Amino acid sequence: MREWISPGALALLRADPWFGSVPKDFEQALLDLATPRRLQHGEHLFFRGDAPDGLYAILEGTLRVSGVTEAGKEAILSLVDAPSWFGEIALFDRLPRTHNAVAEGPVKLLHVPQQDLLTMLERQPHYWRELGVLMALRLRLTFIGMEDLALLPAEARLARRLVWLVEASALTPHEGPCVVPISQTQLGLMLSLSRQTTNQVLQALQDQGVLRVAYGRIEVLDRARLMEVAGVSATEKRILGQLQPGGPKGRAPDPA
After folding, report:
1. Are 181 and 62 in contact (CB under 8 A)?
2. Model pTM?
């Protein structure tokens, strides 16, 4: 294992539900191939259309994944924070990057280069299954988000997105209040809501004691109540359980 990967960094990486579930020899192989990289605020990791360059893991900070039209209008797909792994789509199809990824503040990453990883997978093709699990977890969340956008009113959509931002993060405490490092503007862009509508919904939830809005962040005070407002189903709670450290992590068969 690379000497610059400290015990604390390794513990953080293992808090990710996917990386924490992979076989130890695959974990070792990924870390042996990885190199560190740092980004400053506003610096792009990659742009839509860039050639695939491998797999990444965030050790510190947050990346904004988005698409931007020729007119400059941005649609934020997600905010990816530590210790998430990403970049697996281009690893499978070897096509250009699908979106932009830009640093929200300073970011520290691990980079597993594409060709080195493919060479390792040629020698040990059974590891493709582990990468398939990573992509399947991402696909589940994508389908849920698409359904929310198509069917739900603004309050439910916003509450559900906050639930996923909170409960799917390995850095969220097991119980109690937590902070989501996202602004009202960013949250509205993720949900295709106007700033006025986003503010109205957040204010209503704040009046109910569910959350508190602060500059550049949202403090979720009552996670159970937020789940009630969001209408999280029993099946979705099972999925959230798999996304938490110590959960099943995709090992047991689970109906789609």
Report:
1. yes
2. 0.79
Residue with tokens 């989501």: 180
The whole-angstrom separation of Cα 11 and Cα 35 is 17
d(CA 25, CA 120): 12
In sequence order, the 6+-apart residues with CB closer than 8 A to the CB of 249 are 17, 18, 20, 21, 133, 242
Contact 180, 165 (CB under 8 A): yes
DSSP output for 113-160: EHHHHHHHHHH-GGGHHHHHHHHHHHHHHHHHHHHHHHH--HHHHHHH
Average pLDDT score over the chain: 86
Residue type, 237: K
The model's confidence at residue 234, banded by pLDDT at 50, 70 and 90, is confident
Per the CB < 8 A criterion, the answer to whether 61 and 107 are in contact is yes
